[in-house]
Amino acid sequence: MAVKCDELIYTPIDALSFRISGSTHTLTPNLKNKIIQSLEGPDGTIFSLGTTVEIKKRKYKVNIIEEIATRKGMYYIISIAKRTKSSTFLLPMLGGRRALYFWNTFLLNCFIKTEEDEDCIALLYRWSSDPLYLKFEKALTKFRSFRRRYDPSPNCVMFVFDIPKKHLRNYKKFIDGQYSKLSKTYKFTLLEFHDKDLQDVIGQILFRAEKRKHTLEKKLGEELPEDSELLSIIDVKKETYNSETYNFKKLI
Q1: Global confidence as pTM
Q2: How far is CA 56 from CA 30, 38, 45, 140, 146, in A?
Q3: Which parts of the chain sit beneath pLDDT 70?
Q4: Of 38, 85, 155, 178, which has the fewest beta carbons less than 10 angstroms from its beta carbon?
């Protein structure tokens, strides 16, 4: 379904999401159990959960529709999925920085499991004929920890890696939700990978900053123990590759 509306602006954010801004007052959200199921425009349904749309020659499967209110107005974020915690905390174990891995363009997500692999770091990408991307694909297969590559769907490519031996303990701490107990060296590697500093949310989580602790306490309405981790433990299901989530359907 190619979407056309002169009063709405469609802006890709990354490989997972795009934004709808502009005359969003013309859209009506349909909710079920407080979850937006579809958006309707003057001429009928524009987006609905489970469908696949094409925005600026890029396909997105509509799995999440969010309404974002700001002082300047309101907009919608349409997403295939949320960025996994594995993307933030495990991907840096492979080395390099975000830009190397096409974080904002082709990388969909990082997982701890696939349908056939366990105890791994699995990277799911949008396939592209871009020469730079194809060169990158070959480079990934040369990584020492590379396990295998396969195509879970016509539009996606999965690269599976073994956990680097030097990070086995860090991997286990991540699985257990012990973010502040990752090694000090890896904490700084992780911040460098994301080009963040200690004041960023990631830094506050890794070093258990009082600022984040107070923010969470205010949100939860209760005090947290001094030794509390400042990010929830992973939901294994969300950190495991699910083919249905990323299987783009035919355009309507």
Answers
A1: 0.92
A2: 25, 20, 19, 28, 33
A3: 1-6, 251-252
A4: 178
Per-domain residue ranges of the chain: 8-79, 85-165
What amino acid is encoded at 17 in this protein?
S
Residue-wise pLDDT tens digits, 6-47: 589 999 999 999 999 999 999 999 999 999 999 998 877 789
Is the CB of residue 89 less than 8 Å from the CB of residue 173? no
- The CA-based angle 141-92-103, given to 5 degrees, is 75
- Residue 240, sorted as left (phi over 0), alpha (psi -120 to 50) or beta, turns out to be beta
- Reported as a single tens digit per residue, the pLDDT across 182-202 is 999 999 999 999 999 999 999
CA-to-CA distance for 119 and 13, rounded, in angstroms?
30
Burial code (b: 16+ CB inside 10 Å, e: under 16) for 198-234 equals eeeebbbbbebbeebbeebeeeeeeeeeeeeebbeeb
